[in-house]
């Protein structure tokens, strides 16, 4: 009874699912293929469970001991039953194996010639994103056009990572010395959060990303904006620009025409991104100031140290970085 009540409570809790990290609402061709396979296997598992439990319960009641009942005669061998319980599992395994193998091949299919190439590199604990055809470099945010195949080339700059955006497809590992590929076509506009799915150190849980699927027109507008150099700063932003150059920021970060650091994320258009610190903060003035004041307090183990910035320096840097649209 306790088991039944617990199961019922868990099933009812599932009715209130409202999570962007769900795998049961796929928004791409690859996500649907994986979901259909999951439902196929789950259906067979449920059928087997029901049949086996029904037979078990039936046997328990039909052959339970009764007063005056004689000892049943032992039967050795039954050709019909032996054929049945051999063939039925074989048929079920084949019914599961065929779509499984087909889906495996689908997840590793060669990208079509017209696919948009995107290079994704995992770092502790952020994502570097490059569009070689467009000459765009960004971080922690992937924009892609709806209805067009994208081919993600996945590699790591340090330890093992795993790229996973649940609504767009299965996870794919980033392994040192190896280039992995993930190809899919998003078919519904929206924002899809992702996560590193392989333990990679103390801030593994803080290594998130955001995929933005948008119309072709919106994607082209986004690309044109990112290919353009940032506007010259003025006012408080100009003060922040000077603080950026005078501090240690230029040693790690790139801003087109300003700095060429390679250790940290490219900040050329950080003001236009939706999140900060690899998806763990919203891109608001308050959260940006919080990050600049003490990065390790927000993301333990982060390479960016606490720089001891004054409130005035933080305010100026916030104005400058948010101007980089």
What's the short story on this structure?
With 325 residues, the chain is an alpha+beta fold.
Give a description of the structure.
The structure is a single chain. Among the domains are: 116-227, Immunoglobulin-like, CATH 2.60.40.420; 236-323, Cupredoxins -  blue copper proteins (Immunoglobulin-like, Sandwich), CATH 2.60.40.420. It is built from nine helices and 14 strands. It has helices spanning 2-14, 29-62, 79-107, 216-227, 236-246, 249-252, 285-293, 295-298, 311-323; strands at residues 116-123, 126-131, 136-139, 141-145, 150-156, 161-164, 172-174, 180-184, 190-196, 208-214, 254-255, 259-260, 275-276, 281-282. A five-stranded mixed β-sheet has the order 3-2-1-5-8. Strands 4-10-9-6-7 form a five-stranded mixed β-sheet. The chain is elongated and about 100 Å long.
Question: Which key phrases capture this entry?
Answer:
325 residues; alpha+beta; Immunoglobulin-like; five-stranded mixed sheet
Question: What's the SSE blueprint?
Answer:
Elements: H1 2-14, H2 29-62, H3 79-107, E1 116-123, E2 126-131, E3 136-139, E4 141-145, E5 150-156, E6 161-164, E7 172-174, E8 180-184, E9 190-196, E10 208-214, H4 216-227, H5 236-246, H6 249-252, E11 254-255, E12 259-260, E13 275-276, E14 281-282, H7 285-293, H8 295-298, H9 311-323
Helix pairs in contact: 2-3, 5-9, 7-9
């Amino acid at each position: 009874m306790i088991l039944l009540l617990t199961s019922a409570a868990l099933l009812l809790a599932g009715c209130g699912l409202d999570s962007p990290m769900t795998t049961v609402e796929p928004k791409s061709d690859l996500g649907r293929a994986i979901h259909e396979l999951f439902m196929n296997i789950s259906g067979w598992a449920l059928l087997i469970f029901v049949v086996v439990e029904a037979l078990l319960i039936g046997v328990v009641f039909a052959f339970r001991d009764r007063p005056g009942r004689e000892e049943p005669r032992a039967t050795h061998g039954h050709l019909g039953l032996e054929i049945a319980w051999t063939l039925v599992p074989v048929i079920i395994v084949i019914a599961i194996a065929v779509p499984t193998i087909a889906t495996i091949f689908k997840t590793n299919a060669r990208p079509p010639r017209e696919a948009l190439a995107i290079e994704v590199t995992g770092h502790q604990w952020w994502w570097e994103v490059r569009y070689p055809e467009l000459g765009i470099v960004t971080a922690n945010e992937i924009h892609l056009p709806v209805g067009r195949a994208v081919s993600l080339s996945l590699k790591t700059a340090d330890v093992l990572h795993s790229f996973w955006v649940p609504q767009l497809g299965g996870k794919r590992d980033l392994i040192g010395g190896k280039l992995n590929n993930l190809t899919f076509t998003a078919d519904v506009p929206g924002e899809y959060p992702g996560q590193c799915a392989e333990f990679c150190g103390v801030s593994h849980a803080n290594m998130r990303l955001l995929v933005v699927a948008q119309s072709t027109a919106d994607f082209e507008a986004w690309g044109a904006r990112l290919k353009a150099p940032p506007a010259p700063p003025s006012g408080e932003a100009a003060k922040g620009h000077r603080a950026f150059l005078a501090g240690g920021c230029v040693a790690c970060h790139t801003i087109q025409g300003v700095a060429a650091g390679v250790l940290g994320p490219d900040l050329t258009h950080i003001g236009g991104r939706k999140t900060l610190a690899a998806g763990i903060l919203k891109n608001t003035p308050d959260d940006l100031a919080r990050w600049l004041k003490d990065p390790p307090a927000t993301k333990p183990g982060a390479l960016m140290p606490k720089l001891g910035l004054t409130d005035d320096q933080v305010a100026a840097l916030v104005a400058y970085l948010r101007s980089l649209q």
